[in-house]
Every structure is written in structure tokens, then in C-alpha cells.
Design brief:
With 172 residues, this protein is of the alpha/beta class. Helix content is 22%, strand content 40%.
Length: 172
């Protein structure tokens, strides 16, 4: 199981992104952090029989960073990269679909390295974007400016199904 939580003092959009991540990524559960410090988060991970966590930090009014963390022994270890976000789009509630992603796909070589990290961390298969062995994917693509976009998509139609995150920088 993977716990999804926020940093301290989250904004409404940061909390909503956590909810969206748990809606679309299988094997995840949202943890309301409150005033828990990192030591208490470690205890929560242990009690939930989990060894992985996604922390969504806030910036100027919204989500600004995603951090992937593993529990190794009794210590939290960051998994590279730390993902700085340029923007986060959250679909209006009336348009949401309820489908968990089944694989990770990447549409460019620049996105493949991040897709491999997500595939390993989320324990989802890395699939070819053009095949239709799966219906729903967490898709990573790059735009003309070199920014990466992370979004759940329906593979047969290519439509985005929920949130869309545009990365600003990956810190390996």
C-alpha cells in the first residue's frame, strides 16, 4: 500500500490533488497529515503495513512539488527525482470518471526515465503507448518546451481522465 499525504499547511487544491491521486492510482490510501512530523509519518507507514509514500507539497497557492518516499528500516528515504510542478489541472467534479490506472506509459524518450521510476515505485507495468493491452494509463509525455506532463488517460481514446500535472524541474 502507498500512502498519499500533504506537507504542512496544505491548500485546498493540494488536498484535492491528494484525493485525485488516490482515486486514480491503485493501492493508495490518503493520510490526513495534520500536525504529524516525519517521525510520526514513519510510524503511520509502519502501522499501515506500507513501505511507500507520496508527499504533495504546496507552493504559491497550490501544489508545487511531489516527493516519492520509501521506508527503509525505520528511516524515510527519498526516491529520485523530486518533481517540481509548474501547474496542476484538476478536472471539475462533474466530469470525473472512476477508473484506476493499470499501467505507466511514456510517449517520448525524455519521459521514459520518469516513467521507469513511476513504474518501479507504483509497482505498475511499463507499457507501450500504442498497444491496447490496458484501458487506463498514467501517461507521461513531453511538450515542445521540454516540460513533462503526467496525467491518467484512456488509452483507446487518448482522453485525459482526471488531473494533469506539468513539471517544471526534476531533481535527480
Amino acid at each position: 500500500m502507498i500512502l498519499v499525504t500533504t506537507g504542512r499547511n496544505p491548500t485546498q487544491s493540494t488536498r484535492r490533488l491528494c484525493k485525485e491521486l488516490t482515486r486514480f492510482i491503485p493501492g493508495t490510501r490518503r493520510l490526513v497529515r495534520g500536525k504529524l512530523g516525519l517521525r510520526q509519518l514513519t510510524d503511520e507507514l509502519s502501522s499501515a503495513e506500507s513501505d511507500r509514500m507520496i508527499i504533495v507539497y504546496r507552493g504559491f497557492g497550490g501544489p508545487s512539488q511531489l516527493e516519492l518516499v520509501r521506508l527503509e528500516g525505520s528511516a524515510l528515504k527519498k526516491v529520485s527525482p523530486t518533481i517540481s510542478l509548474q501547474s496542476a489541472y484538476l478536472e471539475p467534479k462533474r466530469r470525473r470518471r472512476l477508473s484506476k490506472v493499470e499501467c505507466i506509459t511514456a510517449s517520448s524518450k525524455g519521459a521514459l526515465r520518469l516513467a521507469e521510476v513511476f513504474s518501479d515505485f507504483l509497482e505498475l507495468p511499463l507499457a507501450d503507448y500504442k498497444t491496447f493491452d490496458f484501458k487506463h494509463s498514467l501517461h507521461i509525455s513531453s511538450d515542445a518546451r521540454g516540460f513533462l506532463r503526467i496525467a491518467p488517460i484512456h488509452l483507446q481514446t487518448g482522453y485525459m481522465e482526471g488531473f494533469s500535472l506539468v513539471t517544471k524541474r526534476l531533481r535527480w
